[in-house]
Design a protein that fits this description.
The chain has one domain: Rossmann fold, CATH 3.40.50. Strand 5, helix 3 and strand 6 form a beta-alpha-beta unit. About 20% of the residues lie in helices and about 35% in strands. The strands form 2 sheets. Strands 4-3-2-5-6-7 form a 6-stranded mixed beta sheet, with helices on both faces. Strands 1-9-8 form a 3-stranded antiparallel beta sheet. It is globular and about 50 Å long. The chain binds inosinic acid and magnesium ion. The site of inosinic acid has 17 residues, from strand 3, strand 5, helix 3 and strand 8.
Amino acid sequence: MSETVRVMLEEDVVNKRIAELAKALSEEFEGEQLHLICILKGSIFFTCELAKRITVPVTMDFMSVSSYGSGTTSSGNVIIKKDLDEDIEGKNVVVIEDIIDTGRTLASLLKLLEKRNPKKLKLCTLLDKPDRRIADVSVDYTGFVIPDEFVVGYGLDYDQRYRNLPYIGILELS
Ligand code: IMP
Ligand code: MG
């Protein structure tokens, strides 16, 4: 089977949009502090690029959850592989996700984080694939709404590969 990647969103387009999201977040939390939660591993590039452009004080933590195996469809099981290092009680928390597909991962994750009593709990995703939504998730900040295609790059993987592509591309398997 051969794999090819077709460019969907060029690097400069992605970075420009991230700058807009950072501006909007900085405005919403003007005079306050932001606690960013990067959902490993897919959100790592997005979190870094976003954090660099936010103008209010930022702290960061990392969490690893899993709902996908090595293929391209959701298993529906959400497992916490690495929990946060710090308490989020009373903090302005922004969960940073790479992509929301069925929404199952985020729906369970947000419920769990809500129980830890953050001051605010917001969700920021680089990509949203609404066509495949199963669970109800309210997204506060979205980079791009995309069609139902399997995408890689800018942190997103297919079987752990392609994360390092500086752009977002559609993975074509033939
Ligand atoms: P959900 O629970 O179905 O919303 O799945 C969300 C997670 O599935 C994301 O954090 C990604 O890790 C993965 N995922 C969903 N769609 C894609 C895709 O098109 N490319 C790469 N990973 C994806
Ligand atoms: Mg992921």
